[in-house]
């Protein structure tokens, strides 16, 4: 896996990243850090990438088990250390999974498998952060 991050010039703290698969992502800093608040912060990107990684796992696990999953979202709430390096110290994942006749234990197991075995991002972040999660099921 490879990506390239390029600073957009000396009038701010904006960057453009190009992924190995050819996609572009903008990032920017907060105004107090010299940014213009035009795009997500790099650490927000880490958090949202982790959410994408684990939601992907949960949907894939449920689909492979032939469960009638219709939707999945995850809201992440995180705290960071006050001092540099400002690593994540706590992350709570709130999953909302929509479907028909979903078994709560099955969905919980899919979430647990993601956090314990499959989601590289959350497993890495668990080295510095206390990870917790909750699951809400919505019947459609």
TrEMBL record:
SUPFAM superfamilies: OsmC-like (SSF82784). It holds the Pfam family OsmC. It comes from the Bacteria. InterPro entries: KH_dom-like_a/b, OsmC/Ohr_fam, OsmC/Ohrsf. This is OsmC family protein. It comes from Cupriavidus cauae. The lineage of its organism: Bacteria, Pseudomonadati, Pseudomonadota, Betaproteobacteria, Burkholderiales.
